[in-house]
Specification:
- This is T6SS Phospholipase effector Tle1-like catalytic domain-containing protein.
- InterPro entries: Tle1-like_cat.
- The radius of gyration is 22 Å and the shape is globular.
- Helix content is 34%, strand content 10%.
- The protein is an alpha/beta fold and 480 residues long.
- It has one domain.
- The two termini are 44 Å apart.
- The chain has an eight-stranded mixed beta sheet, sandwiched between helices.
- The longest helix has 19 residues.
Length: 480
């Protein structure tokens, strides 16, 4: 047995934490996402190249593991290349949960993009077959095949599935206490009629009652048509799960804090990388998202013990949101002319007039489509509203969210739709970035910018250099 692995104990309730990063994410890809930061806050050494990226802390009754993002190239992504990788990832995560789960263990799941999609598939597997007591490969593979099956006998409500859960799985109704999703990307196929031979498929947007609380941060400004979000909701007439889905400003890579580069981070690609542009996330917007997550956890799980120095982390993040030197990234990197500089040797090619003119005409290279917020009651951050009386800075000002940098019309379309559907009281509501003039709904906590901590925070050091230093229309006050 590996010396780093601690056997299961017979102790009281503990927590089992899973972090699943997005495509092209992880230290090997030269990016440091919000998921990686959260993993580091638990004490996981994500930068380690030797051994598993996991931690067992019996003093905190905690076991946690970080799973790298799906590895594939740009071409294979568009051709469905991640399918097999997602299947393996789902099995690895389910097997890890089954291996270490004990009665009364709380499961917390955190995912970004395709990683969030994989976690939702794992949630479906648990809803279908439960958490098996024996984590052998054959049984875990059976759970996976049952989840993919369109047969009526394999549905969660079937007599066969109920009997399987009684015989093979732990007797627990809601094992997953927290599911945190950052802009879930994938396909929803309610009309699946045959066995899915590749990627697991979500049947609908419904999160099953095996989950207690759900946080989902969606991107307002992403326009890449292959990056359409899988929204989250609960079944009608059900009290659980408690779903908090908020639309945040920025593109997909801003929500997750993804540094996107065409070539791997290896020294072998040093020169090509220097000649190729990199997409940089907007750290102001990334900080808003992770601060929202941490404040929710601080409020709902007061004795959590998962994230170290939680309130210091939150204070640091809130200061960095208002720090003028915090980097605001590339903005929207889509569109032929914009994307050219991020292609191989793009910094050279984009300076050639002929190539630039051809790129301007080649709109088919990057299929673009504004996202649609179809629910008039959706929780959408009002990032264009100022902080508080006398404060001229809105989040749009702080993060430089303007039509030139973020040309998507999704937010404007939603506001126009809201203008026709909102009642008079909603239209009169004034929501400030730093504090609401009326009591926030759903127990939301207004943001107050306390002085930043004087001591440094180890888990935030790397992106400190970058930062330097559920309402139906949510401001930063109502989500932080």
């Amino acid at each position: 047995m590996d010396s780093n692995i601690v056997p299961k104990s017979n102790s009281s309730q503990g927590r089992l934490i899973v972090f699943c990063d997005g495509t092209w994410c992880g230290p090997e890809h030269g990016t440091r996402t919000n998921i990686q930061l959260l993993a580091e806050m638990t004490g996981i050494d994500v930068e380690s190249v030797k051994g598993p990226r996991e931690i067992t802390d019996l003093s905190r009754q905690l076991r946690a593991k970080y799973f790298n993002g799906i590895a594939c190239n740009y071409l294979s992504y568009g051709m469905g290349g991640p399918a097999d990788n997602i299947e393996r990832l789902c099995l690895d995560i389910y097997r890890y949960i089954a291996q270490w789960y004990e009665q009364e263990t709380e499961i917390w799941l955190f995912g970004l993009g395709r990683g969030a999609y994989a976690l939702r598939c794992v949630v479906g597997m648990i809803n279908n077959c439960g958490i098996v007591k024996d984590s052998n490969d054959d049984l875990c593979n059976l759970v996976h095949r049952t989840y993919l099956s369109p047969c009526k006998n394999d549905k969660p409500s079937s007599a066969q599935s109920i009997d399987f859960r009684k015989r093979a799985s732990w007797d627990v109704v809601t094992p997953i206490k927290l599911l945190v999703l950052l802009d879930t990307l994938g396909t929803i196929d309610p009309d699946t009629t045959g066995y899915a031979t590749k990627s697991p498929t979500l049947r609908d947007e419904i999160i099953p009652s095996t989950v207690d609380k759900v946080l989902h941060a969606c991107s307002i400004h992403d326009r890449f048509s292959l990056f359409q979000p899988c929204l989250a909701t609960k079944a009608e007439h059900r009290a659980s799960p408690e779903v908090h889905e908020v639309w945040f400003p920025g593109c997909h890579y801003d929500i997750g804090r993804q540094h996107c580069q065409f070539f791997p981070g290896s020294w072998l690609y040093c020169i090509p990388s220097m000649l190729t542009g990199n997409v940089e996330p907007n750290h102001v917007l990334s900080n808003v998202v992770i601060c929202w997550i941490l404040r929710f956890i601080a409020r709902e799980f007061r004795s959590q013990g998962v994230f170290q120095d939680l309130h210091w982390q939150i204070s640091f993040l809130k200061k960095s949101i208002r720090t003028a030197s915090t980097r605001t990234g590339s903005g929207d990197a889509y569109g032929p002319a914009r994307t050219l500089q991020y292609a191989p040797f793009g910094r050279v090619l984009s300076r050639l007039p002929l190539v630039s003119r051809i790129a301007d005409k080649a709109s088919f290279i990057i299929p673009l489509r504004d996202r649609r917020i179809s629910d008039g009651a959706a929780n959408v951050m009002r990032f264009d509203m100022s902080n508080q009386p006398g404060d001229e800075k809105s989040l749009a000002d702080l993060a430089k969210v303007d039509p030139q940098r973020y040309p998507s019309r999704t937010y404007e379309d939603w506001k126009a739709w809201k203008n026709y559907t909102a009642n008079a009281e909603e239209k009169k509501a004034i929501l400030w970035v730093g504090g609401a003039t009326s009591s926030p709904k759903n127990g939301s906590i207004p943001l107050r910018l306390e002085p930043a901590p004087t001591r440094s925070l180890d888990s935030l050091k790397s992106f400190a250099s970058s930062s330097n230093g559920a309402d139906d229309h949510a401001s930063i006050a109502s989500v932080l």
